[in-house]
Design a protein that fits this description.
2 domains
Length: 278
Amino acid sequence: MNNRNILIVSTMVIVLTMIACSQSGSDQSSQSNNPALGEVIAYRKITLQSHSKEGKYLQQTMTSNRMWNKNLSGLHSATFKGDRGERAGQFCGVWMFESVEKRDGYFPLTNKDDEHGTGVEEFSNVATMVNNTTGNINYTYVPQESEATGVYTDYVVLGFDQLKNPTLGGLFALREYEIKAGMEAEFEEFCVNTSVPAFQKNFPGMEIYYLKGDRGARKGKYAEILSFESVDKRDYFFPTHDSTNAEIADEFGKMYETTNVESFLAEPASYTDYFKVN
């Protein structure tokens, strides 16, 4: 495992919180507490081993995230828990970089064959400080404590400069796409110029962002994020995973017809709704 993967990913594996944190408790993440969306989103799935004690990570999680966010400008670290979908009950780590340049500044590519980047001294110094403070975070894989499944993907947000006040809300729905070969450019144009404007105009409290893998496991592949300012707002639009609030069903249906991406997909998309735990 390369240094970049160890540094950024293992932190996310440690950044966990108590299962006792209920969905209703997560609703208290108000829009004002939600971070600005970064142009680069580093996403990693996290799975705890059955014997791991989530409670003991609570203080570590809160402390480490605060330290990352305080000491590294242009970066925001957060942890989410699956609420619906394929990874319900499981965790993911999200690091958002305000720009591609900021990500590249912390994780520059050191040679032509490097696909991951290695943390520079500024990042490594904070990593050491976090480790010394929390005690149990050592930026290496610790199988007796937790298990990381898969590897990270750095996604770049398509059309980022056109977005108005982009925010990653208290709940986001992630859908990973497999696009039909040869339709990538058409898909990107449709997303940026048709789908995103429709959501921003018509549905306050819910934003849509399209992502393209830049580094990692899904490099060159696509995903969608539906960002809700809170769990309550998600439940307003989607009372259950397969329904929409009757109050807005007609309006939502018309919008969906305009923004439906299914014709671009080679296979059905996977999805998980994640709510923020810290």
